[in-house]
Amino acid sequence: MEQYVIRGGNPLVGEVEIGGAKNAALAILTAAIMTDETVVIENLPDVSDINVLLEAIAEIGATIERVDRHTVRINASTIGDLSVDYEYIKKIRASYYLLGALLGKYKRAEVPLPGGCNIGSRPIDQHIKGFRALGAKVEIKHGAIMASASELRGTHIFLDVVSVGATINIMMAAAMAKGNTIIENVAKEPHVVDVANFLNSMGANIKGAGTDVIRIKGVETLHSTTYSVVPDMIEAGTYMFAAAATKGDVLVKNVIPKHLEATTAKLEEIGCDVEEFDDAIRVSASKRLGRTHVKTQPYPGYPTDMQPQIAVTLALANGTSIVTESIFENRFKYADELTRMGASVKVEGNTAIIDGVEGLTGARISAPDLRAGAALVIAGLAAEGITIIDDIVYIQRGYEDFEGKLRGLGAEIQRVTSEREIQKFKLQIG
Ligand code: EPZ
Q1: In the annotation, is 117 catalytic?
Q2: Tell me: the pLDDT tens digits for 19-60?
Q3: Of 45-59, 81-95, 240-254, 385-399, which range is least confident?
């Protein structure tokens, strides 16, 4: 089982390059199968979620060619099977985007119902509501969602919940429906906009992505395109908090600063210096940071995927902070791990009360999920002594070369697979 071993205490200093957004790329890869022509997608992050989804798309018959580590060529004219294997949905929930893509193109799809995950129950009732509103028959049988329609007809859908997944899934199905669709109360995340831009580059007619209302004129067919995925605002924000928590000075490159406004505002509020450039953001912190209250909200509010990262930083701040998680019901599983490092965190329902401490000490901890795992690495980098993190497979789902990029900033971190390698690391650092 792979682990990270970290010796904390070094301020992170230097430059880090951000990759393509995982949560945009997952949807774009599935939307790419909606044409029979060849699609080239660039700036893909080389992370396990992407690689698993590519396997799922190949498994239903599409032709996938890896041009290089961050570029694929997809041709879906060879798709023969419209049901996705449970194996894949078990590994990544985002396989459910194949529902919208296959239903939009073939008017039929069968995808296993995704389970919950470590951060909450993750229902997909809004996705199903949208497909039914477009005229599809949707049943849940033997653990799978079966959707079919003689034809999909444009309609007016008002989402009950602001949902990234439902917005994207319904947008894909509606892109090839007959007539016009209006979807209201949609998610406005940059990755939703990126998927809409991608579909439009294939000949779709989607307007309003990034606002509360998306308007779609259905088209008969979609065509080839070459598209580069938007930079990953969550990867970028993670390094921004790593700089803050270690009192470092980091230039985060290849970002769209506007996407990070809520994060930047919070970093400045707690005392960081943040400097924005056209496609980069510099974060530095020289003194002990201050407390704040933060509540996660749909974009452009403070992102839930950045909640563990700010909580870890506030664990070292001067004063008491309150973090409220309003999107998912179980996103504080890292709190117990942080407590083992000397933090003072009290979780009550969807709120964490954090009394900042002077310092954390290294400990043996486990990554409970993707973003909490990345946040615990930040805690280890800021802690005094050695931290060993188990279950780092979660982190590799969404962060390309995490330890390599951190080492490039002066972190003492190594990926290890045995006690012997841990001892070797300890000897090396002396
Ligand atoms: C996407 O998940 C992201 N995943 C998540 O990132 C992210 O945390 C989330 O959006 C919110 O920004 C991907 O894009 C692959 P939602 P998604 O539908 O689409 C409720 C990461 O770390 N809801 O916007 O599943 C739901 O329970 C991951 O990269 C319904 O009630 O999130 C939640 O409370 C973690 N019914 C809220 O909406 C539905 O049909 C927001 O969920 C759908 C959602």
Answers
A1: yes
A2: 999 999 999 999 999 999 999 999 999 999 999 999 999 999
A3: 81-95
Specify the CATH number for the domain of residue 93: 3.65.10.10
Q: Structure pTM?
A: 0.97
pLDDT at position 114 is: 79
Identify the domain containing residue 358 by its residue range.
3-19+231-429
Asked if 394 contacts 366 with a C-beta cutoff of 8 angstroms, the reply is: no
Closest residue by Cα to atom 8, ligand 1, is 305
- 80 and 200 belong to one structural domain: yes
Query: Tens of pLDDT along 383-403?
Result: 999 999 999 999 999 999 999
Q: Which two tokens stand for residue 129?
A: 């509501």
Query: 154 with 236, same domain?
Result: no
Whether 370 is in the pocket of ligand 1, judged by its Cβ within 6 Å, is: yes
233-245 helix and 22-31 helix, angle to the nearest 10 degrees: 170
- Tell me, yes or no, whether 72 and 216 share the same domain: yes
Last residue of a domain, one of 228, 251, 272: 228
**Given 54, 58, 117, 422, the catalytic residue:** 117
Q: Strands, DSSP E only, in 277-399?
A: 280-284, 293-295, 320-324, 344-348, 351-355, 364-366, 385-390
Q: Are residues 263 and 193 in the same domain?
A: no
| 181-218 per-residue burial string, b: 16 or more CB within 10 A, e: under 16 | bbbebbbbbbbbbbbbbbbbebbbebebbbeeebbbeb
Pocket test for ligand 1, best of 163, 235, 238, 295 (most atoms within 8 A of CB): 163
Q: Which residues pair with 416 in a beta bridge?
A: 3
Q: How confident is the model at residue 115 (pLDDT cuts 50, 70, 90)?
A: low
Give me the number of domains the chain comprises.
2
